[in-house]
Structure prediction request, 755 residues.
Amino acid sequence: MNQKAIALALFAVVFAVPGAFGFESDNSSLTRSFNKTVALVNTQIVVTVNFTNGGTAVSHGFYYADQVPSGLAVSTLSLTVNGKAITNYLFESGQDGDVYVGCTPYRWVLEQPTNFAEANPIPVQAPVQIVYAITSSVSNAFNLQQFNWVGFETTGTNATFGYSETGDDQLVIFTSSGGGVSISGQDTTAGFMLLLNGTPGTNYVIEASTNLFNWVPLETNASPFQFTDLILSYATNTTLTISTNWDSHKHIYVYTTNTTTTVTTNSAGFSRRFYRGRLF
Amino acid sequence: MNSGKKWPYHMTRRQFLRNYGIASGAITLSPFFIERFSAVCEAASSLTRVYKVMNAPDSLTTCSQNIAQLWQMLDGPAKFISPTDVVVIKGNAQWPNQGYTNTGCIKAVVDAILAIPGFSGEILICDNIQTGGLGTGNYGFDATTSNRVNNWSTYNWNQLAASYQSLGKPVATFQWQTDTTWRTPPSQLPGWSAWNPANGVPASGTAWSRYFLNYNGRNTYLSYPVFQSPITSGRIIDMKNGVWENGGYSGRKVKMISMPTLNNHCYTPGGAQDYAGVTSAVKSFYGATEIFHGSPTYISDDYVWNGWYSIHSSSFSQATLNNDPLAAQYAGQLVGQFINNLFSPVLYITSAIYSGWKDRTDTNGAAYTNTVLACTNPVSLDYISCRDVISKVGSPLPTWLDPSTKNNNTWLQLSGCNSQGIGTVDPAQMEVITYDFNHPTATRLDVDRKIRDFKAGTATEQDVKDTINLYMESE
Prediction:
């Protein structure tokens, strides 16, 4: 029985993940997005918050609060109101568990009551953009869940606010190396068995391809898990050769090929297969 | 402008904004600032919080609003107490009038704990009066009506507990009694003569686990109570190791909330500084241990028991006898040893409805300060209580109770305890969060919590807006 453990490069999923607020007390809107959800420890994941004042009056005393899992460091990268960078805002942090267990509140306060002397009002339909970075010095998965905003219309003394819902949760992963996920392959009589190891409890997908361009998902599950790629047509005395290869981007793949003339296919109809694992 | 939150280094919010808000904005221009500003935020989040609530309008009647507001600022008792816990409220019981912990404040704390959803534990109001004080009818447990001046007049502690029991509530008082039976110390110091609950408890209901150490050249014992629950037969309360029942530790936890008074320790009529300074959260530990006075009847605070000193004789008594000016510092250090090695309360709540600036019992020497304070360590709590409350009342002002001057026994007591790693005496490392019923305010933390409660279905949208409006209008 051949056995070879091949470390696959982590396919860091690089895309923005927008999160729209679940509740607004007026017609304002706010989204929170991440430039990526997996990063090396001590490197940044950039979070962008976009708010638009959908109220009927200028908003004063605005602040945005993000309940950041304790253990993450937070630093501001930029803050603009109506497209213009401002400098005289307050950035503050609370203490672990102040509002939610295991989280530390971070707030960006554009103006403070009662006289709002910072003079950073948000005109009607004007945007606010807050860009900040989160980093971790240790490998871990963090679920950024709760966030909210608060404003005040001084003319009508109307309080406005909004907050996130469950659908706005965002899991981010900080990993100690590019090998945050690995799969190993092993030939068995039942088929080709793959074992995926990544961040425990995090969902990964094993995919297969015949050409390294088109990938078909085979199994999605929480790490660690195993999956057997069934051989549907199997020739007598078939020997599967397991090889490794590097692609042009230095990703390592594990693939199998049949040395007999009998064509074997897996459930996806592949006769020669490359496998990879990545975050789902 | 002030929203009730004091910023570090005695900065106003405006000053904080000017200094750090501008710096934070500069991050966009200079990556060099990122590290520095991040450090600033880290420092802010590590401040020790002291909560102060004052001027509730009901403090002369029901005495509940100050404490209710304090719990709100602390985010509720469930943050400290689980539904199955046995809760020990350790008050100061030894002296009458303002000398014992305000019964109304205790009641408000008990009410909040009983309101924890699914609470199935016990609440025990305890203290060891060390066979001292002025005798029957003069203690918090049994104070007669005439000895409830500058306190809650309706009930003493025993009556309060009885009122709960009449309603079927698991609330009782328990007066810890010093065990007069000597036990041989361990051969190695520091070391334990721990009480095994499998042996039950003495007839008094209280056993003690004793911790022996050499302190400043004096062999010293500290001890904590292991006692029979007055509510549940067969249940033994071990303050360090939890609840013992059915032949073993059950896993049910014991949590202590310390509820001290705020008084000048002085014995001299007219008010003056004595060897202790203030008697409040730090000094209150003297009622959580044994101070054996030589026999079942009182002989002396200075008693040395088979060559071993109590917390009192090892600090105050011996230093005073030797004209050593550091008595209060030694007392604080030994309390620090107690907290580090015996057990530590989950919360301290100081009842300063009245503050005896002259002493603990003189009814004309106490001011109606109408304040309660809370903290998770006794040092910072006493620092703020003394600096901001008791040293600000009386005539002449009892400036000897202000630790910020660093030249009095109160300072020695608190800095001594702090030297053992307990709390902080650096006001720059404290954040005082104040609520004044005469000038109601709300903070951003209040707003965020109210939004959380709205999401959880325990507050309404209007509740959130009311809190935001209060925050926006807070001076």
In short: Residues 181-279 of chain A form one domain. Residues 1-19, 232-253, 258-264 of chain A have pLDDT under 50 and may be disordered.
